[in-house]
Amino acid sequence: MVKGIKDVHEQILDVLSRYLSPLNAKGVLSRALARADLRRDQLDDVTAPQVVGNIQRAARLFVDPAALAQLEEELTRLASSGQAPAAVKVQVNGERDIVKARAAGRQICEQLRANAFSVQKVATVVSELARNIVSYAEQGHMEVTPIPGGRARVRIVAVDDGPGIPNLARILSGKYRSKTGLGLGIVGSKRLADKFDIQTGRHGTTVSVEIVL
Amino acid sequence: MEEQYERIPIIKLWDQLLVPLQGDVTDERADRLSEEVLERLRTSDARGLVIDITGLWMVDSHLCATLSNLASSAQLMGTRTVICGMSPAIAMTLQTMGVEMRGVRMALDLEEALDWLGFRVVRPDDELDLDATVDDLETGEVAN
Ligand SMILES: Nc1ncnc2c1ncn2[C@@H]1O[C@H](COP(=O)(O)OP(=O)(O)O)[C@@H](O)[C@H]1O
Ligand SMILES: [Mg+2]
Fold first, then answer.
1. Which residues of A touch B28 (CB under 8 A)?
2. Which of A12, A126, A180, A185 has the smallest count of CB within 10 Å of its CB?
3. 0.80 cut: is pTM over it?
């Protein structure tokens, strides 16, 4: 295994430890492995679905019911990562959707085996754009699309039909003083992006960002 | 409901407060946490505050602003405040975006933060001078 790339065991543990204490996360995973009659080093893309099934059964006992659906979604996506990860579309209507969108961005990056900095860049851009939708346009949607290949990339598109951004030039110049935040969401996303495009008008805003992993 | 698994503890550590952030913190939770911490500073005798972000997987401009504001407010209330544990990936991302944390004391990790607040590690073995202790016992000079 190449150093710095997480194996399936670590990936599952990462997901679990966002919902359980480190000790419980390890316990749940090792029990799921034992039940599938697998050793830790036999856990790979092929055996993952079986283990993930066992984990989901055990997790119901430990994880907050309100968080269970999202955990299952994350695990299921992880288990199917033998194939190229699928694009994820998230409807953005409120605060919870910001969390959901950045979790999806993170997971796609991890499936493409991105390094920590790339994961951070993608998750942060997703978070900034999703928050802008919630704060300024009320609702819209986000799409995170993996583009595998030699130079794997992730495309992030945020779409809303809100009031648009009349002072865009000033915002992009970096001189804008925001009343609601640091005023660095859009220009910061542009600085993190390898490709950046923004279309805005009275009928809404669409921001597209590409980040090379 | 969801808030249950996001509960952030405010730990009292002698005369300091320690706030270890973990996982994915929503805007709402971060705002509420700030209020809770400032209220605790008001009602307790805490002289220092450590905000440990080692467990945060993501910090965007908004969370960064919330944390800076919390630290600055605590400082205005006379509490020595330090934020510690920012991962290299988060630091590089914020730096690229142009986000700054002016006027906020940052430390590499919890140890460095506590060090800055004046804590020193003293293990019993380091200090216990057996001969001296025995002498004291014999001359009856041990307090109480
Ligand atoms: N999707 C959007 N629809 C309408 N206005 C927006 C949108 N996104 C951003 N804005 C406007 O652009 C400004 C700059 O946004 P941003 O760079 O994210 O900084 P901040 O959110 O911290 O103010 C916001 O203050 C807001 O007025
Ligand atoms: Mg913003």
1. 95
2. A180
3. no
